[in-house]
Amino acid sequence: MTGPAALSRDPHPAIDPITLTVIQNGLQQVCNEMDLAFSRAAFSPVISETHDRSDGIYHRDDGALIAQGEDGLPVFVGTMQDCCATVIERARNLQPGDVYIVNDPYLGGTHLMDVKFVKPFFYKGELFCWLANTGHWPDTGGAVPGGFSASATEVEQEGLRLPPVKLYKAGAIDEEILSIINSNIRIADQRIGDIKAQAAALTVGERRLTLLLDRYGADTVDRAIAEMRVRAAQQMRAKIAAVPDGVYESTAIVDSDGVVNEPLTIALALTIRGEEAHFDLSRSSPPCQGPMNSVIATTRSSVYLAMKHIYPDVAINAGTFEPLRIADPDGTFLYAKYPRPVSGCAAEVSQRIAEAVFAAMTRAVPDHLFAAPAGTSGNFSLGGTDPKTGRGYVCYLISGGGYGGHAGGDGISNGCSTIGISKTTPIEVVEQRYPILYEEYALREGSGGAGEHRGGFGVRYKVRLRRGNARASFVMDHGRVGPQGALGGADGAPNTVLVERGGESYTPLHLSKEQGISITEGDAITVQTPGGGGYGDPAKRDPALIERDRVREYYP
Amino acid sequence: MSGNGTRPMARIVGVDVGGTFTDLVYLDAALPGGLALAKVPTSLDNQAGGVMAALEAAGVDTATLDQIVHGTTTTTNALLERKVARTGLITTKGFRDVLELGRRTRPTSYGLTGHFEPLIPRELRLEVAERMDADGEVLTPLDEAGVAAAADALKDAGCEAVVIHFLHSYANPDHERRAEEIVRARWPQAEVTAGSAILSEFREYERGTTAAVNATVQPVLRRYLKRLTDRLSDGGYARTLLVMQGNGGTISAERAADQAVNTVMSGPASGVMAAAYTARAAGFANVLTYDMGGTSSDVGLIIDGIPSIHSELDLEYGMPIHVPMVDVHTIGAGGGSIASVDASGLLKVGPESAGAVPGPICYARGGTRPTITDANLVLGRLDPARLLSVDNPVSLDDVRARIVEAVGAPLGLSADAAAAAILRVANDRMAGAIRMVSLSKGHDPRDFVLFAFGGAGPLHATALARELAVPTVVVPARPGITNAIGCAVADLRHDFVNTLNTPLEALDIAGVHALFAEQEAEGRALLDAEGVALASVEIRRSVDMQFLGQSHILQVPLDTATPSLDDLARLFAAAYWERFAVDLPEIRPVLVNLHTAVLGHRPAVPLAQLAASNDRAATVADAQETTRDVWFEDGGWQVTPIYRRERLPEGAAFDGPAIVAQFDSTTVIEPGQSARLDDFGNLLVSVALLQ
């Protein structure tokens, strides 16, 4: 229909594209400032140094993503909107200054350590939207310090689970709820600083968003938000339309669930039909006993972020995901329900799901893609009491690995996890805080998969306990097979772990996962993270680059 | 000697080398109007050529000069183009790859490709046995023979410079110092940089990279300054050549190369220093500086007359530089920024730039994509007659057609509307950058003036001020040579940092007082050694603090060298509240770093001379050159008077709409705004605020 009749159906005139751009930039800036305030004020290095956190703005009706900080963790893109939706469903008697706290994985979450704060934002007395952030807490209780229990079989062993409750009521912290939390987590005395930082970031967002609404008016900003969503969907549709129709299958392997030493398979059938992409994960392995189950919010988010990695220029909000249809993978480990343990989903299973998406898309549009990245966060936690200070500690470390080669060149060395944008914590900071000494932190030679464009290199590090006793746990992956090469390139080197305890060394049974390893002064752990997959036939590699790599001793 | 017995004003040259032009200001009471200016093309391969050409163009007799102060982009260009000296690294065994692995992420949040090359390649990174712990206790003694062998190997490999970078050297620099001695003794020609000597703060990647930046540009800067000082002394110049640094202060050319990293951000710093100096004289203490050039815009913040300083900059992805420098926020929006419509149908302006070549369409150097400058031209803000007087002219209609093609057609806009849209999106991005440096730090823009300079700053400043609710725009007398003026007015400056990293309850406050005293004494000694005439010396002190368990710090300025523990606790709590609106009585504060800046103020420079003109009209009306149709966001096209800046009478006052044109810039005054010239020749524009 055209003409006046069609126009009159729309009560709001279309927003002009210039105002739209200005408002989009403004909303983005609000989120970026929340990210910055959270990191700068936080106490835990996992937030202040590695930036394992994210801040965003969500729709008042359904929690749909409106904008997310550019420096936030990509995996939280999808999960936070599901989490906000849960809070919206349950919210009662909202007042300005209320802040919900929630970490329940089954209610739009990842693992328990990712704690969300969700705050209603009021403008001129009316609910306009929700502001929310996620921060990775170093500990939320459970069987092992740091929460990465590699052999948990139910979520209760993984830590304290919080449904949405108001931690702040009309701006004042609820000391009773706080005391419940503090009674159930380790090193509680250091948590108050992070809690205040997490809430302060939302306050910063509130102030800045108010200024934006003062300037443009709530109605205009509302219309801009709706229009941004439509446009993002159009953009993603245009990308998918350019992919040849067909069914593209791929698999990715999780080493084990940490309890039963058998690989888990992610089996993806990707159907491209016109402007939509259908992701069928239903032939994946059934739910597992150990913590490698993924909750549905994380499964969906992993698909979203993989597609966003492939098409980084597409704007990001709820519209971006509309053409991506993900059937609920009922009956698989990718749709975990209570009480399945899930600590490995955010950091590890999510990256295997992304790897499956990359591999399927490589079959569809080979020239546009890249070989697989290291795809493990290298989660390593160590907890104990330092006899020198008498204080308890929980040290949580993540590592990078090599990225895959791509049409434009070799892969990056020591890139961060696919689902993150985290920095590693400086060695000097770790050694200041914890009774740990690094003996080596080196590029892992030979780990990048060969190819016309080789994979980037992983990292090799060795840490030794200097004082007292501690318990070490790690949840990593890609120990069984390395990251996949593409178009004839070789796979990257797999992850390895070596534990030296009481003068003896061993490789863990599950290769990349073990929990609660009791170690004492002088014991050491050596980790080698995966290299990226190679891209293209290694025989076609430029001899000058081969010579350069030889001079640099990249291959032993 | 002048007849009345007073000392004649010193003859001073400020000369700044930019990407396109080398600008010079020459202050000399004997000259007509008291000064001479020059703007010559920058000589890219050896900037000394452009500097000498500028001196000649301004008619400077170098033999009688009292002072030359020089801003150079030599080190910045060397880094960005990776034309740096071959440099080796000697580091702690087990950690040679720290500089390659870093804390790396990937260049962008989304997309898994990208590229990174460390400044020092792997084959030149050598390890020696030694180890400190975080308390500075020696765990493994230094292998001195290993250091000697590594030095020999790097020398044989053709290195010119060496970085010595050991873990935890901020806590105990003994091993680094000893290794430096060994290297210097065996290899006197080498430039040696010890990490802790450049930056005594934890975070091994940032400290090591800062040291690597210093070492790799050191030989480049030293050679350049040698060439320049040789040519200056050939011309009879006998005084100290002062070089501008990123901290906004100057240092003697002999010492500049020792801390070459400090010159990396000197260009933006000199602009902010000029703004601070000029605004202070005009009575404005709180200033937002806005410098718009061809490819980017720089925004800075001045509080109570003092430019804010920070020590964390990423020059590019993976290249952190952590030394004190003027806090300048750069965004990729300049006159040459390209406008385009992206796949989602939204208008984008920058960061892609047409640069100087091919440049904007209207420069007729082959540019075909519309830029901010083209939009300003189409909307009458720039004079087509002046801009288009090139050999191979492009007509205004050509420019309009290109704008319609690239922006108008996809958005369904006319040429005028498309050009207006380009300006609006560009202004929005620039306003966003200004908000980041002001609002995000808790400052209210209404308490500030917007100081606009650079060739394009005054074109956009009044619209930005309206958007930001900044009540006053200040356009200095010579906006296009502000950086050169910054050189002429800058102080000598030496910065000192010591890391204590101690909770207040365990702090030896007498030790703090002693360290402050040492830092001051060292700075005063350096000033004395430079032999430059000074009017006064100023000491600025601050501490970096955090709560126990944090890793980021907050800078807290001090007004005393002998603060009490209570003072420190109180000032930190107040600063923390101002920044984050959080109070944390339950957690102990920690003093991380002590800073002292020792500033040597040179004799005052008479700014009014900058506005000198022997061509002033009797009335504002007489200063009007012509009228032109100019487009404004409020009101559309309006017949607008065009004034010549040098013709405006002293104290002139007039209302917008108006355009003030001058040799090096164009100022737009919107309808509803009013403008006047102050006693120093600054053009002050009052901006009507919303509500």
From TrEMBL, chain A:
A biological process from GO: glutathione metabolic process
Residues spanning the membrane: none
Superkingdom in the source lineage: Bacteria
Any one GO molecular function term: 5-oxoprolinase (ATP-hydrolyzing) activity
GO CC term (a single one): cytosol
Residue ranges annotated for the Hydantoinase B/oxoprolinase domain, each copy included: 16-538
InterPro entries found in the cross-reference section: Hydantoinase_B, Oxoprolinase-like
Listed name of the protein: N-methylhydantoinase B
Protein's organism: Thalassobaculum litoreum DSM 18839
UniProtKB/TrEMBL annotation, chain B:
Example of a GO MF term: 5-oxoprolinase (ATP-hydrolyzing) activity
Coiled-coil segments on the chain, per record: none
InterPro entries for the chain: ACX-like_C (IPR049517), ATPase_NBD (IPR043129), Hydant_A_N (IPR008040), Hydantoinase_A (IPR002821), Oxoprolinase-like (IPR045079)
One of the record's GO cellular component terms: cytosol
SUPFAM superfamilies according to UniProt: Actin-like ATPase domain (SSF53067)
Hydantoinase A/oxoprolinase domain span: 207-495
Annotated protein name in UniProt: N-methylhydantoinase A
Lineage, opening ranks: Bacteria, Pseudomonadati, Pseudomonadota, Alphaproteobacteria, Rhodospirillales
